[in-house]
Amino acid sequence: MTRTTSTASSSAVAPPSSEPHATPAPDSLTRLTLLLLAALTIMSGATIAPALPAMQLHFAGHPNVGLLVKLSLTTVGLAIAVSAPLGGILADRFGRRPVLIGSLLLYALGGASGLVISSLDALLVGRVVLGLAGVGTMTAGGALVNDYFTGAARGKFLSQQASFTSFGGAVLLPLGGLLAGVGWRAPFGLVPDLIAAAAAGAAVAARRPRPGTDG
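^ that's the sequence the OP posted. Answer follows.
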């Protein structure tokens, strides 16, 4: 009888749960930062597109100016496409936070290059730098979304990112047009301003990774 009772008592003890602890929901600042990171992609083209005619007039004496000015818009996307695998390698090697912060600083440098550069060739180099930085922000930002959200919550936030990016393009394009009326360099100043807002919350967005992931 004693043996039977002991066996029943042992079987009543629940085994320890092996399920991972749920990740706390990100706060509002973190969500806003992740939305801003998603908007950086559209910023690279939408902000300067209205300034292209004025840029062509400014560099009228440069050989193949028409082609090179158009390349200043498309070079960013080309740099992103070519270097996309590099972003994942760097994030795995150094972690999300260093890649994110470094890419934001590089993005600000490449994005604002048009404010001071006087050569069209150097301007194209700045656009390449902007594209390379965009790879880092896209990779780190996407990894952070996967860290913070799972299942239906992840799908919902990704749809919010898509909506925010579309809204950002709708706002930045006419704003870039207004700035282009001031001068062709003015739209380049819009990038570092918005980067500052994203960078302000970047440390918050990267500081609390999910268990089992690196920083």
